[in-house]
Amino acid sequence: MKKSLASVILTAALLQGCSGHPGSGHWQAALDSEPVNSEAQYSALELEFDGKGTLHPNKSVAGQENKADLWCVWQARSAITLDVQCGDGSAEKTNVKFEFTVIGEKQEGAFAYTQANLTKEGHVVTVFNRKI
What we know:
Blueprint: H1 2-18, E1 25-29, E2 42-47, E3 52-57, E4 70-76, E5 81-87, E6 96-107, E7 110-120, E8 123-130
Antiparallel strand pairs: 1-2, 1-8, 2-3, 3-4, 4-5, 5-6, 6-7, 7-8
């Protein structure tokens, strides 16, 4: 009995690790939906299944015009939240930490995660929509 219970728990953990996080995918700033996004620092975020990603600056915002893309790594913190760490590879070793939280709505018996907030130090810096 103990062996079969341990086997079931191990199998469930392994299967969970194989599924994609709802935060992975390609996201685009929701520039027209929120006041915070009228000056969103970032225009797009690509979070690949393998835990890597790219954060694109919003070049139409003052101070972002000459900014380069940031290369990121991410890991799941919870079922809806990712810890995202980004850097630009410069000599200054830019290292920015974010929290990325997907927002879901129940649609036809399942959750569809179509929006997400990128937060830095507790403040939303960009609201994203899933790019389809």
